[in-house]
Amino acid sequence: MLEARGLTRRFGEVVAVDDVSFEVPAGAVTGFVGGNGAGKTTTMRMLTGVLAVHAGEVRWGDRPATAADRRRFGYMPEERGLYPKQPVLDQLVHLARLRGDDAGRARQEVLALLERFGLADRAREQVQKLSLGNQQRVQVVAALVPRPAVLVLDEPFSGLDPAAVDAMADVLREHARDGVPVLFSSHQLDLVDRLCDRLVVMARGRVAARGTTTELRESGALRYRLTLCDDAGWVREAAGVRVVDLAGPDAVVEVLEPGAEQRLLVDAVARGPVRHFGRVVPQLSEVYREVTA
Ligand SMILES: Nc1ncnc2c1ncn2[C@@H]1O[C@H](COP(=O)(O)OP(=O)(O)OP(=O)(O)O)[C@@H](O)[C@H]1O
């Protein structure tokens, strides 16, 4: 498990990251979200040792992460760092050999990853000759090649087309399944919703919320949807609930007192047929808006 414990970083007067703590457990994909300037990149750079911390510590397992641990961290920075003039295959094989593989095995593995990301026929081209999206794919492969013990990826999905997004999502899930803690930042909340088991939400340099996606969805207001056959206008007068949305026979209410939703249902049945009654679980995007507001 990778852990940020009380991480703090200033740039001059600006406290970019302020006492940030969260866990990136093995076996799960953790999404890292927050508005522009919220402190995600700064936190990821501290996690991977690219940037010094001003307070707090990064822990790997049950102890502070060492330089040797960090060499096994796979990091894909926001500012991409491949050599533009070198052919794709050569740089990736070089990376693979750094971990001690022989040339044949390194080549085989890199080619398999390139194939997976639809880049097999581009292997001999210079990085700079590829489109931006394909350069991005090569960056992703570069982060995976060293078989990292943990993956920290800064906006790995930005600029990818839908096929590459799917390939990337599969790769992240597989790594998590194999026990690699995976943390990635993104502004694409639908993708985060689809892919993540856990979420850390940053706002103004601090952690605004964290937990499993289920916990976060259920941490918000308790809401129910009631759909009748006739107009649901009377729900406005019902005790213990507040109407959030009302359209003809359909009402969404927030429960203000324990059990008020059950009384609402009893009232509704007494008035006529009920077509639907159930808990409304918010989208992560709604939770995100609430906690960062
Ligand atoms: N090298 C730096 N020098 C000065 N200020 C910096 C530096 N790096 C980051 N900051 C400031 O730290 C704050 C957090 O920035 P950071 O890049 O970590 O946010 P972010 O959440 O990754 O944003 P984005 O989603 O826009 O990439 C911002 O106010 C930013 O201007």
Write the layout of secondary structure elements.
Elements lengths: L1 E10 L2 E11 L4 E5 L6 H8 L7 E6 L2 E2 L2 H5 L1 E4 L11 H11 L4 H14 L15 H13 L5 E4 L8 H16 L4 E4 L3 H7 L2 E6 L2 E7 H7 L3 E6 L12 E7 L2 E6 L4 H12 L2 E7 L3 H9 L1
Parallel strand pairs: 3-8, 3-9, 6-7, 7-8
Antiparallel strand pairs: 1-2, 1-4, 4-5, 9-10, 11-13, 11-14, 12-13
Adenosine-5'-triphosphate (ATP) binds next to β2 and α1.
Q: How many separate domains?
A: 2
Rg (C-alpha, Å)? 24 Å
User: How are helices and strands ordered from N to C?
Assistant: EEEHEEHEHHHEHEHEEHEEEHEH
Question: How many strands, which pairing sense, and closed or not: the largest β-sheet?
Answer: 6 strands, mixed
Separation of the first and last Cα atoms: 30 Å
